[in-house]
Amino acid sequence: MSLLVDDDLWSAIGDPTRRRMLDLLLGEGSRTATSLSEQLPVTRQAVAKHLLVLDRVGLVHASTAGRERQFRVDQAQLARAVAQLADVGAAWDARLQRIKGIAESIQQAADARKPD
Amino acid sequence: MSLLVDDDLWSAIGDPTRRRMLDLLLGEGSRTATSLSEQLPVTRQAVAKHLLVLDRVGLVHASTAGRERQFRVDQAQLARAVAQLADVGAAWDARLQRIKGIAESIQQAADARKPD
DNA sequence: GCGAAGTGCAACTAACGGTTGCGCATCTTC
DNA sequence: GAAGATGCGCAACCGTTAGTTGCACTTCGC
């Protein structure tokens, strides 16, 4: 079930700061590390490191123009990540439903035994 | 959008080992740290630390019986976690769709301009 | 040419996931 | 009931990572 999860990709979006960075990048299309850090509670260097991580798993791509380095989201890869979130969520949901179902049938069995 | 995400809860399920532990716990209902570690590539102590983390965010609960300490999943809390996965996924998905929509309308505008 | 802006690199700290080693409680068995 | 086995918790240690500060380098604007 959840064996098809890419741990590196998941870990990349597991960090709260990186998730907020992705939110910001999705909103503005293309941002520099300095610009991102102005809207985050961490320094530019921390943002740069996170961008490196995101780049390593293919969630963002960089393009240098002059002294500026613009980052943008790789939409296909983010879509893949979203799919994995959905997969794991669905798997757990199914398990929870099954447990709920078992609990109910036990309850029914108990109810059926009472009048006896 | 994703501002309603509980960072601690998210980080708890962000770790691959902890995710697998939840899978195992969901399958068996109730397990001890030692028993879990036998099916995981880490030591009992590592598992114990993870269980502490999971307990702290309310994803599992422990009950001591003799020398054994049984852990079970808190279904309501896991359901909350699943809901957050779905929320973030949906938010990103919506953003991606909007971007795709914008890209298409730009393309259409370009197409419309061509015959001119 | 000079200062400002943007970046990258290096060193350092704190927290975390992991390990080993040890001591303590509890269960089992003779 | 003493002896060994089983399960657990605590402490020390190691490597990685998220974060910091400080500095040197390039590029832009005047």
Instruction: Give a count of the beta strands of chain A, DSSP E runs of length 2 or more.
Output: 3
The CATH homologous superfamily of chain A is named Winged helix-like DNA-binding domain superfamily/Winged helix DNA-binding domain
**Low-confidence residue ranges of chain A:** none
Largest interface chains and counts: A-B, 31 and 30 residues
The helix content of chain A is 55-70%
What report would you give on this structure?
Two copies of one chain form a homodimer. Chain A is of the alpha+beta class and 116 residues long. Chain A has one domain (7-113): Arc Repressor Mutant, subunit A, CATH 1.10.10.10. Helix content of chain A is 68%, strand content 12%. Chain A is built from five helices and three strands, in the order ααβααββα. Chain A has a three-stranded antiparallel beta sheet. In chain A, a hairpin with a 2-residue loop joins strand 2 (60-65) and strand 3 (68-73). The longest helix of chain A has 39 residues, at 75-113. Chain A is elongated. The model of chain A has no long low-confidence stretch (mean pLDDT 90). Chain A binds chain B through residues 1-2, 5, 7, 10-11, 14-16, 19, 22-23, 26-27, 29, 75, 78-79, 81-82, 85-86, 88-89, 91-93, 95-96, 99-100, and chain B through 1-2, 5, 7, 10-11, 14-16, 19, 22-23, 26-27, 75, 78-79, 81-82, 85-86, 88-89, 91-93, 95-96, 99-100. Chain A binds a DNA duplex (30 and 30 nucleotides) through residues 15, 17, 32-34, 42-46, 48-50, 53, 64, 66-69.
